[in-house]
Design goal:
By secondary structure, this protein is an alpha/beta fold. It has a single domain, classed as Rossmann fold (3-Layer(aba) Sandwich), CATH 3.40.50. Helix content is 27%, strand content 20%. It is built from four helices and seven strands; from the N terminus they run E-H-E-E-E-E-H-E-H-E-H. Strands 2-1-5-6-7 form a five-stranded parallel β-sheet, sandwiched between helices. A two-stranded antiparallel sheet has the order 3-4. Strand 6, helix 3 and strand 7 form a beta-alpha-beta unit. The longest helix has 11 residues. The radius of gyration is 13 Å and the shape is globular. The termini are close together.
Length: 119
């Protein structure tokens, strides 16, 4: 299955990133949660560093555009096949940078894509 890095992962059950990690894992995807606070979600440690992760298929964003610039080169250097911009994370600058590197982008909800079998 597709390895997914969840940027903005949280151990707070009220957060969509929490739900996304659980749902991705339940659908059989390898998940790497990355966030700003240590914790656990779906039995996985939330990385607060910038772990090297070979073969990332998808980076799914749960970080607002105002907080994304510090993550640009980390995301792009992972060379994912695609970046998913969940609602509220849309960022034309990062989308342009990704396209220049041959990375697909999609403005879509991870939870919806998984629910309808289009992930």
């Amino acid at each position: 299955m597709k390895k997914t890095l969840v940027l903005g992962a949280s151990d707070n059950p009220a957060r969509y990133s929490f739900r996304a990690v659980h749902m991705l894992k339940n659908h059989g995807h390898e998940v790497l949660p990355v966030g700003i606070r240590k914790g656990q979600v779906a039995g996985l440690n939330i990385h607060t560093d910038r772990p090297q992760a070979p073969d990332v298929d998808t980076v799914t964003l749960y970080v607002g555009p105002q907080n994304q610039p510090g993550w640009y080169y980390y995301i792009l250097d992972l060379k994912p096949r695609r970046i998913l911009f969940n609602p509220g994370t849309e960022n034309p600058e990062l989308e342009r940078m990704a396209h220049e590197r041959g990375i697909l982008t999609e403005e879509a909800c991870t939870l919806v894509l998984l629910s309808i079998g289009q992930y």
